[in-house]
Amino acid sequence: MQLASDSFRDRSAMPAIHSPQLRWSGVPSGVSSLALLCMDADAPPGGADIFHWSVVDIPPSMTCLNEAASLPLRQGQNDFGQVGYHAPLPPLQQTRHYIFRLYALDVARLALPAQFTGADVLKAIYGHIVDEAQLIGTYTRT
């Protein structure tokens, strides 16, 4: 499975204001749904993951998410207290890496509460991952 974007290339600068366009291919046959997580890869050591976005129950027939899309999909609460995507927010003059990870799952709907977080998604997908792909973007706050 491959994950790419028209908004940025792997390991390069990504847009700061809106959610980037993401597209994928090579989803294995028999997959029941997809889940997407965006995490700050440079969270302090020993600390919890910092989630910027979680989207679950994506139909396997879907092949992209467009920039600033108003998604009719289940989105979780990010670690900044809002539902949906939260743009990069590193400390001033620091570059951070943001991992977008797409999971192909063997369940059509994840067992999650109505209000869920990225951490909840990680627990719910355990044992259901068929394949995964990732794309890493960077952002420097000036």
UniProtKB/TrEMBL annotation:
It comes from the Bacteria. Pfam families: PBP (PF01161). Gene3D superfamilies: PEBP-like. CDD domains: PEBP_bact_arch. InterPro entries: PEBP, PEBP-like_sf, YbhB_YbcL/LppC-like. PANTHER family: PEBP (PHOSPHATIDYLETHANOLAMINE-BINDING PROTEIN) FAMILY PROTEIN, UNCHARACTERIZED PROTEIN YBCL-RELATED. This is Phospholipid-binding protein, PBP family. It comes from Duganella sacchari. The lineage of its organism: Bacteria, Pseudomonadati, Pseudomonadota, Betaproteobacteria, Burkholderiales.
